[in-house]
Amino acid sequence: MTTVSLAPAAAGAAVCTPTIRSRMRRWLRKHPTLIVGAALLSTVAALSVAAPWIASHDPQALDPLARFRPPSAEHLFGTDAMGRDLFSRTVWGGRASLSVGLLVAVLATSAGVALGLLAGFVRWAEGPVMRLMDGLMAIPDILLAIALMAVTRAGLTTVVVAITVPQVPRVVRLVRSLALSLRERQYVEAAHALGTPLPVILIRHVLPNMITPLIVQATFIAATAILIEALLSFLGVGLPPQIPSWGTMMADARNFIAIAFHAALFPGLFLAATVLSVNLIGDGLRDALDPRLARQL
């Protein structure tokens, strides 16, 4: 009986099959923006989450005798016009900004998906829903947010709602355009022909094909929400004063730039780094998840 050795073939297969580590390195080289954005956002998020432990002072503690202190070992980022420690206020302010960005992204995407699917698959609802979205988009985001804040009490919940409402139409238009394309696909028509209920069709066949653009859109919504929250706080119509916010810190320091530039520098840097990191993540996810871009790369 002839004995056939499979060891060389197995060894060749092991050599030809790329290891997980090599695949990971190749994937990282293809999507550097995603890695840089994730690293930058992780750093800001880690500092914000660890604020209760790494903050050396109470962010609301006043010390008029220590006002406008420059950065030092005692006050890493210096102090503001009221003697409050800027490092403590900056890391605590990140908690508010990241919370607003995450909540707005989740709420706007969820509401936009529901209304977009309604407009895309229920023909009688398409007209009213889209005309409402057109009306909301006709008003600039910041003006609509300020108008909503003017008729409500200042607080985290009202800020989130005021920023979410202007972002919903963008998701609705995206989802509706995808729904109009997907509802003509053969597998969707076959499911209709078999009597499959519409909710089941949407969950099993339609939503999975929308995940990629929705994830990318959600990242850009989060970045926009962080910026708008900072702008509202800067204008004095955002978060209440007892909640540290990067926008509030820059507003408090705007009249003292000449004598205490650091009071506006550090919250501004954290705001810019956070928005940049979220945008980089959105660009990286678009490149990584879009098959057409992947083939071009």
TrEMBL record:
Major site of localization recorded for this protein: membrane
GO cellular component, one term: plasma membrane
Membrane-topology descriptor: Multi-pass membrane protein
Subcellular location: Cell membrane
Pfam families per record: BPD_transp_1, OppC_N
Gene3D superfamilies (alphabetical): MetI-like
Residue span(s) of domain ABC transmembrane type-1: 98-282
Domain of life: Bacteria
Protein name: ABC transporter permease
